[in-house]
Amino acid sequence: MPLTSVEKDLDALTMTITADFPVPVRRLWDAYVDPRQIERFWGPPGWPATFTRHDVFPGGYSNYYMTGPDGERSGGLWHFQAVDEGRSFTVRDGFAREDGSLNTDMPTMLMTFSFEETPGGSRVVSVTTFPSLEELEQLIEMGMEEGTKEAMGQMDDVLADLQSFAADLPASLQLIGDTQARVTRVIRGTVEQVWRAHHEPELVKQWLKGPDGWVMTVADVAQNVGDRYRQEWTREDGSDGFGFEGELIESASPHREVTTEAMIGMPGEPTRNELTLTPVEGGTLLSIVITYPDADTRQMILDTGMVEGMETSYARLEREVLGAVSA
């Protein structure tokens, strides 16, 4: 059990939780900033968490929900106020409605997580500041303290699981709900390098080619919100061909962007693609949350070998673009 202490200061309206772990600070930090990892311990036993958004940069947001034994849900929303890479982050923490928006009928809190090295490994100290004594007592009565203790009791297994989150793993797929999919991969390069490789047309053409034998002929990149983009490919001999187009609807360089995507000439609703880049040990964690019109469309597209094609491109990005930059 990693929990060291829980202290409540009624005068300062704070609750401070300290936990120690036999791992380096970087390993502990990454467990919090990687959505695949934090959702394995953030919810208490019986209430696993699912993070549909996790943008660890100043101004970023995280959306998550915890699912109970009978399928009931409790949603949460973080707004990142400050991030000191590898050392601390502060969020405005609140309850979320079903659509992910802030539930203004419930209290919001300020939470600061600090990470430090210890003789035996590392320590995380979380300080939650409540808006009033009444709201502190309300949330404690709702089980916040016990739920946090139980949740942190799951962290040892997550931190010990190095294999599932190693930097040399290929792109992985996780289904979220009925209509979403999250593809993640650690790219060996900085956040700035990976962002640039996604936004400079000549670089994009070098790596975003999918399986061997194809070339990217059009890489029109959207630079500003509201701009449209277009991507086209053909076989090396010029036969066949397909493409995608869409609109840039949100951008926070170099950490996050949201686009729509539809196959050129095909009817139907576009997907919504949310790209997030987060620095982690070994490089940059690239995470794409894709929202499909329905479950059947999601399955149809995944059955095309989409994730395998993405992995081929990401491996080429490391080898032919970022490898050249680092040389």
UniProtKB/TrEMBL annotation:
InterPro entries to which the protein is assigned, alphabetical: ASHA1/2-like_C, START-like_dom_sf
Top-rank taxon, per record: Bacteria
Activator of Hsp90 ATPase homologue 1/2-like C-terminal domain residues: 23-159, 190-319
Family of this protein: Belongs to the AHA1 family.
Protein name, UniProt field: ATPase
Organism: Microbacterium sediminis
Lineage: Bacteria, Bacillati, Actinomycetota, Actinomycetes, Micrococcales
